[in-house]
Amino acid sequence: EVQLVESGGGLVQPGGSLRLSCAASGFTFSSYWMNWVRQAPGKGLEWMANINQDGTEKYYMDSVKGRFTISRDNAKNSLYLQMNGLRAEDTAVYYCAREGSGGGGDSWGQGTLVTVSS
Amino acid sequence: DVVMTQSPLSLPVTLGQPASITCRCSQSLVYSDGNTYLSWFQQRPGQSPRRLIYKVSNRDSGVPDRFSGSGSGTDFTLKISWVEADDVGVYYCMQGTHWPPTFGGGTKVEIK
After folding, report:
1. How far is CA A93 from CA A112, A118, B87, B99, in A?
2. What is the rounded CA–CA span in Å between residue A45 and residue B54?
3. N or C: less crowded end of chain B, CB within 10 Å?
4. Cβ(A5)–Cβ(A109) below 8 Å
5. Among residues 48-107 of chain B, which lie with CB inside 8 Å of chain A?
6. Residues of B in contact with A105 (CB under 8 A)
7. pLDDT tens digits for range A58-113
C-alpha cells in the first residue's frame, strides 16, 4: 500500500524557516516525480513545487521561487521542502503527492499544517 | 497561468440523484503528445484530496463507476450517476498540460 507521511509543520514567525519531510513507503520512490501542494485554511488547492526522479529537475510556483527548495533522498525514500522567508500567506496545510501516470497526484499524504504568525 | 473555472460553486443533491460539475479552462489542454492532462479530485471533509479521474475520462483504481469524466479542449465535466452519502465533499479539476499545474476553485457537493 502506498503511504506518504508528512511531518515538520508547526508555528513559525514571519521571516522564519521550516523544513518539511515526507516519508514514502509501499512503492519504488526513486521511480516517481513528487510534488508539494498546499491548501490555505478554508481555501482551494495550490500546486507549489515538484522534482523529478533523481532530483536533477525542480520546478516551483512563482510566489515561492527563491524562498522554498524541494529536494529528495532516494536512499531514505524521503521528500523535503525547505521553506525560508516565510510569510503569513504561506500558512496552509502542505501535502506531498506522488505524480501518477496521466498527471496529477495519484497518492497524497495526510498533510502537515504550517502556521506563520507572530 | 491557465485559469480553471468550475461551476457550480455549491451543488446540493438528493441522494440517488445524478450530479454534474463543469470545468472550463482558459486555454486548450491538449498537450503536444496528443494527451489532455485534466484530472478530477475529491476531498471529503477533513481528508486529503483523492484523485478520481485522470486524462479526462480514466478512472483511478477503486473509484466507483458512478463517477465519469468527459470533455475536450477547454470544457470538461465530472458526472456522478447517482449520489451517495459518501460523495459529500469538495471536487476539484486540475490541469497538468501547461506550466504551472493549476486547480479549479472547487465545487462543494452536499446532500439536500
Report:
1. 5, 18, 22, 22
2. 17
3. C
4. yes
5. 48-51, 54-55, 58, 60, 92, 94, 96-97, 99-106
6. 49, 51
7. 999 999 999 999 999 999 999 999 999 999 999 999 999 999 888 889 999 999 99
